[in-house]
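Same chain as my last thread, 112 residues:
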Amino acid sequence: MEDIIGEIIRMSWDLRVRRRMSGAGIEMERIFGIKKDGGWEINGKKEGIWEGFYENGEIRRRENYRNGKREGLWERFYRNGKIHWRGNYRNGKREGLLEEFHVNGKLWWRGN
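reply #2:
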């Protein structure tokens, strides 16, 4: 049974990558507990929250899009799950404060 489920997941994931049906990755996470890179696309443009994960399941990146452009908070994480850097985007361009952190989670640098 596990082999069959694994094959279904692999085939679904391959289809998602080939056809860029990003919502399938979110659905697989909800149903099977598998964390895959992805998010939603509307009319071929990224929309809303997109996430990526390390092999160990820890979050690697979290990005926000509106109409295919970077919008809102963007974050990158270390393999240990601690924040690496975060910044905001507006209409596709970085705006405002950017913060970078050491691997232990302590603030390293803050600026515009």
